[in-house]
Amino acid sequence: MQVLQAPSSPHLSIQTSKPPHLTWGLLPSVSVNSSPFSTLHFSLHSQKDQRLLWSPHKRFTSRAASVEDAVGDSSVSTGTAEGDVLKALSQIIDPDFGTDIVTCGFVKDLQIDEASGEVSFRLELTTPACPIKDMFEQKANEVVAMLPWVKNVKVTMSAQPARPIYAEQLPAGLQTISNIVAVSSCKGGVGKSTVAVNLAYTLADMGARVGIFDADVYGPSLPTMVSPENRLLLMNPEKKTIIPTEYSGVKLVSFGFAGQGRAIMRGPMVSGVINQLLTTTEWGELDYLIIDMPPGTGDIQLTLCQIVPLTAAVIVTTPQKLSFIDVAKGVRMFSKLKVPCVAVVENMCHFDADGKRYYPFGRGSGSQVVQQFGIPHLFDLPIRPTLSASGDSGVPEVVADPQSEVSKIFQNLGVCVVQQCAKIRQQVSTAVTYDKSIKAIKVKVPDSKEEFFLHPATVRRNDRSAQSVDEWTGEQKLQYNDVPEDIEPEEIRPMGNYAVSITWPDGFSQIAPYDQLQMMERLVDDVFEPSVQA
Ligand SMILES: Nc1ncnc2c1ncn2[C@@H]1O[C@H](COP(=O)(O)OP(=O)(O)OP(=O)(O)O)[C@@H](O)[C@H]1O
C-alpha cells in the first residue's frame, strides 16, 4: 500500500492501494477509524502554529460536569467582558448534541453594559418544543450571574425560524417546514392514525407549530379523529394553493376534507393527488409536519417518501409475531431512502382488568425490532377504551385528558421525536464541511461513527454525473488534469440524509452521496503512516 503526500495539505497524506496516477478513481480504502490505533491517535494540527485542530478527544476536554464546575472554570477571566460571558455560557452542554451552547450557535444578541453590570442575550434553540429549554434558561442565568462584575442578567428564549435543512430544491409549499416526520405502519388498523394525531397534538402542546398531513387517500381517518369547525379545505384561487383547515392550533390537510369522500383511484393517480395536496398547501412556518402515511410499503409509499424530504420515521406495530415481518419491511424501505427510524410504537400491547395485566397478542415483537434494527426507542401503548372513544369523538386523547397514562406515553414519544429530529438535523448539517486551514473536506457520515478527511480535488475528480462520466459507455469525460490540484469548494450544502451538494469555483454543482464519499481515498495523518501501512 502506498502513502502519497497531498500537495495542498502538508500535514495530511492520501492513503491508497493504487499507483499515484490512478489515485483519483473510485477506490476502496481503509477507514481511518477502523483501526483502534488510529482512533486513539489520529489528530490534525494547524499548518501555521501546530495548534490542535481536531482529535477524537478534543471536544470532550473542555466540558464541565455541572454548572458548579462551570462557574469554577469561568472565574478565570478571558480579559474581556464578552469573552467572560461566552466562556461561562460555553460550560452549558446541549446533551443531544454533546456540544456547548456557544459552539451550537444558540447565543444571540449579546449586549453588555459593564458599567452597570447588565448582561442580556437571547438563546435561540433549534426548536420551540425543546424539552429542556427551561433548564437552559435557568443555567444560563446562573452561570452569567456568578461572574463577579455582573449585577443583572436578562435571558430571552426563542427558536430558529422554521426551515428545512435544504430549502432550494423543495416545492414552495415545503420550504418553511423544519422537520417532516412520517408515521408509518405496514398493515392497516394497527393504530397508525391514532399515534400520528396524538403525537402531533403532543408536539403542539410542547410549544411547536405543527401540521398533520393525512396521506391515506383510500381511507382518510383525520376527519373522524379531529373536529375542526371548517371541515373543507379552502382554495386560494389566485395562487392556486390549498389553505389547510385547523383544529386546536394544528393545521390539517386530508383528502377527507376535500369534499370528495373516499377515492377510487389507481396507484399513480393516488401518488399525483397526494403530491399535489401536500406540496400546494400553504403550510406556513411549521416546526413539525406529521405525515400519516398510507399503510404498506408499495409504490404509493415509496413515491411519497421520494417527494418529501423526511427527517425521520416513527413505525407503529402491534405485538403479534407476524407484525415483526411487516415492520422489517417498513424499516428496510426507510433505510433504503436513508430516512432514520427513530421510534417504534407497539400499540395495543396490553390491557388491565381485575387488577391484572393481560397481553392478548403476545409479547416481544417490538423489542425484537429495536434489537435487530437498532431503532433507539420503543414505546408500549396499552389498549384503552378512552383512546378509541376520543378518536371517534373528534378530540384526541392528549387534548381531552392531557394527564392520562396514555397522554404521558405520548409526551415521552414527543420528547423522543424532538430530540432525535434535532440530532439528525445537526448531524446532517455538519456531516460534510470544508476546513480551509488544512484544505480538507471533513466527512462525518450521519448515523455512523466514521469520520474522515478527503482532498477536495479527489472529490471533484470522482464526480459520477453525466458531465463527468458518459452515462451509456461509462467512459470518463472529466480528465485528471481538468481539475486543479488546489481546487477548493465554494459551498457545501446537505441534500436530505443521503448526500451533499458541493459548489465548485467553475460553478459546477456536484451531488455527492455519502456512499460515494465513503469509497474515496482518504487523507490520513502522516504521523501514523507506518502503523496504518503495516
Ligand atoms: N391503543 C388503543 N386502544 C384502543 N383503541 C385503539 C388503540 N389504538 C387504536 N385504536 C382504535 O383502533 C382503530 C384503528 O386505529 P387507527 O385508525 O389509528 O389505525 P390505522 O392503523 O391508522 O388504520 P388505517 O390504516 O385503517 O387508517 C380506531 O378505532 C382507534 O380508535
Automatic annotation (TrEMBL):
Domain of life: Eukaryota
Keyword terms of this UniProt record: ATP-binding, Chloroplast, Iron, Iron-sulfur, Metal-binding, Nucleotide-binding, Plastid, Transit peptide
GO cellular component: chloroplast stroma
Needed cofactors: [4Fe-4S] cluster
A GO biological-process term: iron-sulfur cluster assembly
Location in or out of the cell: Plastid, Chloroplast stroma
Chain ranges of the MIP18 family-like domain: 84-155
GO molecular function: 4 iron, 4 sulfur cluster binding; ATP binding; ATP-dependent FeS chaperone activity; metal ion binding
Residues in Gamma-butyrobetaine hydroxylase-like N-terminal domain copies: 440-510
Record family assignment: Belongs to the Mrp/NBP35 ATP-binding proteins family.
Matching HAMAP family: Mrp_NBP35 (MF_02040)
UniProt protein name: Fe-S cluster assembly factor HCF101, chloroplastic
Source organism (scientific name): Vigna radiata var. radiata
